[in-house]
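This section describes the prediction task in plain terms. A model, or a person checking by hand, is given the sequence of a single protein chain and must write out its three-dimensional structure as a string of C-alpha cells. No templates, partner chains or ligands are provided. The sample shown here is typical of the held-out split.
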Amino acid sequence: MKVYLDNNRITPVDPQVREVMDPFFREPYGDLPALHDFGAATRKAYNEAVEKCYAGLHASDKDTLLFTSGAAEAHSTLFMSTYTRFILTGRKNNIIVSEREPLPILELARFLEEQGCRVNYLPANSDGIIDPETLTDYITPRTALVSVSMVDGESGAINPVEEIAEICRRYEVPFHTDASQALGRIPVDLQRLEADYLSFSSETLHAPVGTGGLFLKEGTELLPLIPGGRMKAEALRGGPLNLPGIIGLGKAMEIASDALGFEVEDMRDLRDKLEEALRALPGVEILVPWALRTPNTVLAAFRGVESEAMLYELNREGIAAYSATVHPFGEWRQRPLTDILGLDPVLRHSTVGFALNRNTTEEEIDHTIEAIKKALEYLRSFSTLDEDAKEQA
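The expected answer:
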C-alpha cells in the first residue's frame, strides 16, 4: 500500500482540478484580450477562477489579486518592492520576519541584510508559535514590513496572525502573511484578518506546482518584479499568465473552501486516531499542543530512533513522511524547530512528521500505525542512540 503523508510540502492534484485544466492542454485557447470566440472563452474561464480565489479568501472586490508562479515569486515581489520603495530611499531601514518563515522569505531577508537593511527575526516560543507581544519589542516607526506565516510548515503550529496584524495596524506598518499551509485546513478570511498582503501557492492546495498569488489590500502599493502587462493585475506582473494553472488553482480554491466542513473534520479524526496510537507507544512524545495545530499534522519524537532510519523503514512500507531534523537541502537555513521546542538532546534527531490530506483514508492510517510499531521494534533492537528507550520498550 502507498500512503502519502508529506502533504505540507506538496499535495496530490485533485481529479476535479485536472478535469478543468484538461481542455487547455487538449484544445486551442485564445489570449485573454483577444476579440474572437477563443479569447472570450478564455476570459470567461479566467474570470470564474479569479472569483473563486476571491471567494475562497473572503477578499473584497476592491482588493487586488496578482497571480504568480508560486508563493516564492509572490514573496520576492513584495520584499523587493518594499526594499526599493522604502529601504533604498532611506524612508525606512528595517523589516521584521518570524524565525520560522518559509525558506524563500528567510533567504530574501538575508539578501536584504547584505544590501544594508536591518532585519529582526521574531523568536518562536516553546510551542513553536510567534507570541504577538514580542513584536512590540522590535517594531518601530522605521519598520517597513512585518511578515509572519499563518501556519508552520513542519509542525502545523498556527500563529495568531490576527493579533499580529492588529499590532501592525496600531503602528501603521504593513503586514504580510503566507497562507499556503493554512488554505483548505483552517478558515482564511481577509475580512477578519485585514492583512495588507497575503500570499499562497498551488502545491499545498491539491493543484499542480507552478501557480500562486499575492493579494493586496485596497490602498496598498506594490512595484512589479517583472514590469509590463496590459490589464490591471498584469500591470503588476508582466509576461504571460499560466492560464491552465490559474484555472486549476481557482477550482482547487473552491474545493478547499467546500472541504472546510465535513471533509476537514474527517481528516482531523484520522489525524487524531494516528496521534492517539502514537501516544500509546513507549518512548514517543507528541510535539506542539493539539489545539495549536492544523487538523492534518502530527509531529512526534521517537526516543532511541534516528529520524532518517524511521523514514527509511516507513518508506519500505510504502509510507511517505518527513522529518524536522533532516533538512531537504542538507543544511539548516532556519532555526531548527527541535531547538525551539526545547527537546531533550537525544530526541532532537528523532522527530518525524505526518501530514494528512483530505483524501487520506482510515485504511492508510491503520497501515501507518502498524508500520510505525514494526519499525520502532526493529530499530530499537540495535539502536545505541538512547539506552533508556530500550528499557521503556
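For orientation: The domain at 261-384 is CATH 3.90.1150.10 (Aspartate Aminotransferase, domain 1).
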